[in-house]
């Protein structure tokens, strides 16, 4: 066989196996013969093959065993998928020629190889592209999916600023959560990170690429280097991966709304990176066999050992990601055991020339990074669509691979045989135990020990000599009220009648007599009313009893029943103990040290939430230096735990489950080891880890971001200054003309009252505040002998401050919040500087409308003079303004909360939502400055959460009606109100109740996927679900906050008190939310 023929045969085998794997994944069909038939009918076109399999109504033919158990010749093909029945290459072990199908495939690939040499694109990639295009076309034709909404950036760059050394997130640029999950998992493999960062492009990269593969892979590698460098040293909270994603999308020829499969993307990504490193390796080692670091890191080898009709074979294959079936297994080891053994294996290690066929897989070389693909999707032939498998599958944090290694083949076979024998014994014991625990021949069965106990209780009951129906007096009138009482009752009545009159007094004798009467009443037998009382008469036995039984019979029967029950209980305990011992023995079968020498630690878990046609991806990644799990969910990177990982990844609990597991060799610490400076020995971090070109790239991006922050700060400063000038101008314009001279230029800026202290008319707020001020002045005048205005002002200010301080120190319920009544109470609560409080009090007494008597006017003039004498360096006016702005924000928050709660109590949830949303956001900003700056955060969060749940429930009910108008209204509520608010609940993942509420809402809509509905409803649901499930924690811009009405302080306090009182009376716990 020539070299050209050898290459042609390898490509033929590779191409056929790739087509079979892709076709099996898309349709869920595992019958190799049927798959080959579909490919033959469709001439290798996967889209037509899929249509052939899904539309075929004939019964699937039985698989030919000789065809099934053929395996491939020894080859270095690393693209083969393993682990299922259809994953074995085909070779004729009998020495005959290839069949017609194989020859046809080989001939058809001659032209493909010529195209590969010209373009550099393999047939595998073309096949994947055709499948994706067919899938996209089908989606467009049947679902008419719209462009998925992309979350916008916050306009405030401070919200997008990285906090210290927190990991950097990746922005979701449109159904790219799969990209973020995979890239973050690989980036946190520090050895892989170093390979990418220190990758130097080939010298000829500046020239025209030789083929399309180089034209695609080398630019992608460069963009990945840039992306990794930003993840290392960026000052941004998250970065934009659009450039790298665009290259991928262009290569897959998919629309922006088509969501890619995680395992497929990872497989293709590793191939591209491998090709890029291969190009560099070939350039660096001309004339030598190039060494590709990607192969060393991610690829391993296994040995296929099998028997076909008595003929043994061995074949070595290379693998990357290892696929595992999930359906029917409870943990990862069961999946691996099933993937490593195919067919009848008794003959594999038997000396007899058996006709049985089968094969085993044994790992000869494991990669440092071992990746398992968990197949959680299957194609439903009846419904004609893919479905997700939600079964629970457990996996360990530390996985020992010794039992699957070729060097342990003999030991493992012995242990597997022992486990098989133990499981057979276990099955027998469980069947026996079941007969004890479910005894009987009818539909209802009971534990045998209980049956014997009931029989013993029946036999031991007091015998009765009459029929259970013969002793009922049928002559008594209805109600039974004339039944005669037994003699004790009449005796008691006579005793009651003979009580002496003095016994009715209040002394000890009277109390003793009352106790005797109560005892006598208890001794009386009440009359049984069969039609009004469910209690059985006291003179009838509580349970059925035997009619006739002698003492001898009872003694013998009780002895037998006691003995039998003891025997049954002992047998049950022995069976349960034996079952527990066997379970324990099986669990510890591989726990000896010799089988714990190949440890692999769980590095990353890629999670999918949703259904087969819609969902969201994120990743849990272990940080070995902090010894904790981190959750990478697009732009949000948060601390997590093993418990949260288990809840989201094992499956069976909700619509989320692990889709891909990445383990790393625990004996190779270089995979996650930090890099150290060779000269100083210091650990490299941040920009120091980057090569010069990437360091320059990140520094330039950081400077752009810093400039953006500076421009934002300057813009906000200008806005603040404009607000100050506008307020000053409004205050000056509102003041009446005065003949008093203007203050000199070197005095403080023109004074103006804050909005809530404006006193331009003796009505509303001003009147209420003026009354308080005049009351303080009157009290000061009564206490102070001197009549000077300055002394009266000082005393009045002390009186007023004392009154407000007393309010601040009171422990009041929520409905009476004194902070709303006066700004000084708010300042005292939050420990405002003394100068700020004094100036605010002076402003109160400097009101021009403060009374019309001479005393108040003189005090007002003194107060205004004091204000003018305050030097700029004595009171920080910028700080003064900030404190009053915070109080204005507090009042606005109160109004938002007040209106939102009033609307919520009226069940106007649509109108209430925005008020509650802004109340929570404003309140959160206030509480960030101090615990007394705002209101109860849990209270606002509760009603915000409940409002969203009510809207979700209402929208779902409208959707369930099936009416066009109602459905559109429900989806409009979800899209315009609920979906845009979900990130607000997810941004703080420490709030477990919000997380549960989001899951409740998502699960409600995901539950519709498995239900039959009209095609138009299915289309609308499929269009809507990605928006609901693919919600990033990035906050989308809302509409402007609702315009707030103006309330006086008195009105605000009264309405706030009423609504808080209503909440106290009506609020109940919301089922754990």
UniProtKB/TrEMBL annotation:
| GO CC term, one of those recorded | nucleus
Repeat among the record's keywords?
yes
Q: Name one GO biological process term.
A: regulation of proteasomal protein catabolic process
Where is this chain's protein located in or outside the cell?
Cytoplasm; Nucleus
What are the UniProt keywords, alphabetically?
Coiled coil, Cytoplasm, Hydrolase, Isopeptide bond, Nucleus, Phosphoprotein, Protease, Repeat, Thiol protease, Ubl conjugation, Ubl conjugation pathway
Could you tell me where the Basic and acidic residues compositional bias lies? 765-789
- Which parts of this chain are annotated as the region Disordered? 463-545, 731-789
- PROSITE patterns hit by this protein: UIM (PS50330), USP_1 (PS00972), USP_2 (PS00973), USP_3 (PS50235)
Note the coiled coil stretches, chain numbering: none
* Enzyme Commission number(s) from the entry: 3.4.19.12
Ranges for the USP domain? 168-666
Q: What class of enzyme is it?
A: hydrolase
What the entry lists under Gene3D superfamilies is as follows: Cysteine proteinases, DNA helicase RuvA subunit, C-terminal domain
Q: Which GO terms describe its molecular function?
A: cysteine-type deubiquitinase activity; proteasome binding
> Which catalysed reactions does the entry list for this protein?
Thiol-dependent hydrolysis of ester, thioester, amide, peptide and isopeptide bonds formed by the C-terminal Gly of ubiquitin (a 76-residue protein attached to proteins as an intracellular targeting signal)
Here the segments flagged for biased composition (Low complexity) are: 509-523
Q: Assembly and partners?
A: Homotetramer, inhibited form. Homodimer, active form. Interacts with ACTA1 (via its C-terminus); the interaction occurs for all isoforms but is strongest for isoform USP25m in muscle differentiating cells. Interacts (isoform USP25m only) with MYBPC1; the interaction prevents proteasomal degradation of MYBPC1. Interacts (isoform USP25m only) with FLNC (via filament repeats 17-18, 20-21 and 24). Interacts with GAPDH. Interacts with SUMO3; the interaction sumoylates efficiently USP25. Interacts with SUMO2; the interaction sumoylates efficiently USP25.
Homology family: Belongs to the peptidase C19 family.
Q: What does this protein do?
A: The muscle-specific isoform (USP25m) may have a role in the regulation of muscular differentiation and function.
Its recorded name reads: Ubiquitin carboxyl-terminal hydrolase 25
